[in-house]
Structure formats: structure tokens, C-alpha cells
Amino acid sequence: MDEQLIRLSVDGTMVEVCKGTRIIDACLQAGVKVPSLCYLKDISDHGSCGICMVEVEGAKRLIRSCQHVVLPNMVIHTHTQRVLQARRLNLELILANHPLTCTQCERNLQCELQSLSRQLGVAGSRFTRTKKHLLPLDETSSALVRDPNACILCNRCVQVCSAMQTVHAISMVNRGLQTKVATFFDEGLGNSVCTNCGQCSLVCPTAAITERDQADEVFAALSDPSLTVVVQTAPAIRVALGEALGLEQGSLVTGKMVSALRALGFDKVFDTQFTADLTIIEEANELLQRMATGRTLPMITSCSPGWIKFIETFYPDQLDHVSTCKSPQQMFGALAKTFYAEKAAVDPRSIRVVSIMPCTAKKFEAGRSEMDSAFDYWRDRMGLSEEERFADVDWALTTRELARMIGRIGLDFTRLPEGLFDDPLGESTGSAALFASSGGVMEAALRTAYEKVSGTLLEEVEFSALRQAQGIRQADIQIGEIKLKVAVANTLANARILLDQIRKGTSEYAFIEVMTCPDGCIGGGGQIRPTNQEVRERRAQAVYTEDRGKPIRKSHENPAIKSLYASFLGEPLGPMSHHLLHTSYTLRDQYR
After folding, report:
1. Which stretches of 463-564 are DSSP H helices?
2. Which end of the chain has fewer CB atoms surrounding its CB within 10 Å, N or C?
3. 394: helix, coil or strand?
4. Which residues of 542-556 are buried (b: 16+ CB within 10 A; e: fewer)?
């Protein structure tokens, strides 16, 4: 037998696993899913919940399977009477201090604590509550809401924030009954270094951290006849939404999603992929301009708002490296209230722009003071006062919020017809679809940059090196006589590695893509739960399927984009494009 493989028994089944495998993962390979509330593979093995107990022959006591690795010839029992009693006891201890207000909770029927209680047959707790006073909600963030009373101290959020993102916005504080998750000086997420990525809300087993729900505000706008409410949908939504509405993980539901949005009452259903194509045109031209004029390189993409707040906070000295392009969400908002308003002869003050995003940080981005260029466009033209100032994007909803809205009106999503996006902001290419997955922005930009520089047709449009399942990917791309070294990073921990190289002067790259979340937007903090590696892989394949199914796969060939430049924007990086599609960034104090 390979010395790197260990043979052991799980409930009578012999299995071989790699040396160093944790018992909980070895059991899964043997076909037994050991329950846990605190374990996250490769991220958190806090062991605080005590639910993953197993019995190992020869051991004096039960073992927390998330904290111990396998040994040769180990004999494991996962559901003896002793094990089941211990799990139930530990679960009751957790429930003793948990608010049992399930019908009022956003996570009702989608709560891991609730599901585990049903699995273990625990209807309540025999123990007296030891936490006598409720703690106040943390509503300081524009993106997330924290309810410390629903927290079970599993440590998942803390570990994701520190290990995956290296932000350390939250941590365990105090001891004993006073232990809680808190920010620095307990000032709240909105007053911390939090990047609003939402990975904490994605892994939280209860409703201790959730997105700030804005669905009621959107429903109110939809019922107001004086308003024109338009919606844009990010690329990653269509490969995840179906998971919450009765379809398999990774289902591509573009047409059904459009029909659902129409049923909700939106006046126009547009596509963020339209402005993703636009982003590529502006970003590719900016890269080539930087290379031609000797401006700051490497240039780093700017589509991910969690990443932008991260570099503003922790690496403000490197902001010159970041592309000045707005994200597709914000480009769309600016165009919807200028170009579309003019074309449709609608007062921009009556237009409400709703974004459906896989990302909680998009809520923060929509509220940034820099994101109101449509008002500046109209101020002199309409004689508007400062009191009338409006944002380009009014609300950014997560995939989860949209799923709840669809459920609220009783739609049978699986039976909806295949709808089509509206013109003129609904036409997109395969390149735009790639924005959903890590490496996609880079790949899309290279498709355009290659043909612009070389003047020749790019026959093979897929860059396989940028599609590898790695935290940091790199490739050498030959464009005519230019050899372009590029890199792709997903998660802020990996972004930090590339930024440290730049700071040390050792970076070899000309162009870098950074996405805040694992595997990009398909793993965004606002996506449908669960979002693990297997689910993200299925979503990524759906993204590549949409790319391959598009009749046009290069952003610069999008006829609607060509028409937009001809009739409104002028030229890439021109005065109108600069005003509406580009922005600047904010220096933030990480020690605030």
C-alpha cells in the first residue's frame, strides 16, 4: 500500500484515505456525513460545537472528528448510542441560549441549527438559559446585519474573515458566558475594516450574520405608478438562482430568471452583462494606454467592490495600480439614468435602478459617494439642486433576496417560460458571461486586447490556464510582438500575496485580476447556500456553457456596444466615457 495512504474502518467499511486527513473527512469518503456546526474544510476546525463526536476503538473518550487526523488501522463508529447521546446533549446546550423564534427568522427552514435539531430529534432544551440579556443588533453596515443573539459561537465567520480574507474585522472576545463575536472596540461592522464581502454570512449556520434585506423597499417601488423601475442581473445570478427554486445546482436559468423578474413587475429587465462588455472595452483600452505611455503597471481590475475597499484600507499606496473603470453594476446605473432615460424620454429622477448581485459588497458600492455621475450629467441640463442628488444604483439585492421575492409571490420557477432581456441594455457576448467566474474578466479582456494590438483574428478564445481551480493563476500571453504576463487571484488572502510582490518591487505582471470571493462571483457572499467547492465547480461549468452558447464571444464585437459609442459615448476613454464610466478611490484608515 502507498505509504501516503492510510487504511481504516468507518462503521465497518474499510476505506483508504490520504495521510493527514481529518476523521470527519475520512468518514465522508466512506459515505458517512458526520454532522457539525463549526467545521469548514481547510478553513475552520474550531471544534466548539461538539456535534461531530465519534467513537474510536481504544480511545478513552469520544473524539471531535474535525480536530483529529486518521491513524493506521483506526476503527471508527459514528452513530453508537454513546455518540448520539453526546451530540444531542451538546445540541441542547447550544439551544438553551438560542432564541427559538424560527418563524420570525430569515433563515427559517434554511438554518443548519434547525436542520440538525430535526436530524437528531431534538425539539428543545432541558437546560436553563444562562445568557439573561439580549444584545443589540449591529446595523452599522450598509451591507450586513449582525444579530449576536443568534450566534452559536461556531467561529466560522471569524476564521473566514481571518484565514480566507486576511481582513480580521471580527474576532472572539471576552470569556465564559460573556464570549461573543465582535469588531474592534465593538464599534460595529460599518465602523471597522470589514470589506462587506459577505463570506461570513455565507458560512454562518444561523442568522447571526445576514445581508441587509432591501426586498420590501423594492416591492414598494414596484407598486408606485410614478416610478420606472428597471433591473439588471449579474452574470453569476443565472447559474445559482435555480438552486433555491427547485433546480439542480449549477443550472443555467437565464430565461426563467428574466420571466420571473417580469412577473415581479419590473418595467424593464436589462442585463449587467451588457455593461460587462462595456467594462472590457474601457479596461482593455486603459491597459494598452498604460503600456504605451509608461503609466503604472501592473494594472489591476476594479470590478469587485470588496477588493476595492480592501486595497483602499490595507494598501492605499498602491491605488494607482487599480483600473479607474467602474464595475459593470455602476456603469449600468450611470447609463440607465442618462442614455436610457434620454432614449426612453423618462425623467431620470423617476427611474429606480435595482441590481441583482451575487455580492453583499455591491450594497456598499451602490451607496458610495463617488457613484452618482448621472446626477452630475443632468445637473446643469435640468437645473437640479444639490438637494435633488440621486445615486446611479438605488438598490442592490443578493441572489438570496431575489429567491425570497420570487417565493413570496408564489411563482413556480421551474415552469416559467424562457424570457428575453429588453433592449437597448440587454445584449451581451460570451466574454461578459465569464465575469461570473474567477479569471473571466482577464480572459474577456485578453480576447479584446489581442485583436486590438495584433490586428489579427483570435481563433482560440478560451484561455485554459486562467480556468484552473487555483487561488492564484498566471499565464504568459503572446500578443503580436508583446509578451504579456498576467495573474488572477481570488480571495483577499491571495490578493495580499500579489500586492506584497508589487510593494517589494518583485512583481512580473502587467495585468492582474482580483476577485474577493473564492472562485469569483459564483462563490459570492450573496449566493445561494450551500456554496462549497463542488457547487462552485458546477456553477463555473454553467458559466462556460453560456459563453460557448453565445453567437458573439468577444466584447468589442457586441453591436449594441458599438451603437452606444457611436450615438452617445463617443470613444473609449473619451470625455463622456471618463465622466460616466470611470471613478477614483478613497484612502481609508485601517486603524480607525
Report:
1. 492-504, 533-549, 559-564
2. N
3. coil
4. bbbebbeebebbbbb
> Which residues touch 16 (CB under 8 Å, ≥6 apart)?
1, 5, 6, 7
Alpha helix positions (H), 228-353: 254-264, 272-293, 305-314, 328-336, 339-344
Under a CB-based contact definition with an 8 Å cutoff, are residues 61 and 68 in contact?
no
- Cα angle for residues 168, 170, 175 (degrees, 5° grid): 120
The answer to whether residue 38 is catalytic is no
pLDDT of residue 100: 86
Domains and CATH numbers, the chain: 5-95 (3.10.20.740), 97-211 (3.30.70.20), 216-581 (3.40.50.1780)
Selection from 338, 428, 335 nearest residue 378 by Cα: 338
State yes or no: is 370 an active-site residue.
Answer: yes
Beta bridge partners of residue 172, listed in sequence order: 181
From 49, 256, 521, 546, the catalytic residue: 521
Locate cell 426612453: which residue?
A: 344
How many Å apart are CA 142 and CA 147, to the nearest integer? 15
For β-strands 53-56 and 75-77, DSSP reports them as antiparallel
pTM for the structure as a whole: 0.95
Beta-carbon contacts of 586 under 8 Å, excluding residues fewer than 6 positions away, are: 312, 368, 370
Strands, E assignment, 159-251: 170-173, 180-183, 209-211, 228-233
Q: Which three cell numbers stand for residue 529?
A: 447556500
Whether the predicted pLDDT of 326 surpasses 60: yes
Cα–Cα dist 428/257, whole Å: 16
* CA distances from residue 269 to 5, 61, 234, 425, 545 in whole angstroms, order as listed: 54, 59, 12, 9, 22
Catalytic residue among 283, 401, 427, 443: 283
The question of whether 365 is a catalytic residue gets the answer: yes
Can 323 be counted among the known catalytic residues? Answer: yes
State whether residue 334 is helix, strand or coil: helix
Task: Encode pLDDT of 103-146 as tens digits.
Answer: 999 999 999 999 999 999 999 899 999 988 899 999 999 999 99
Q: Is 256 part of the annotated catalytic residue set?
A: no
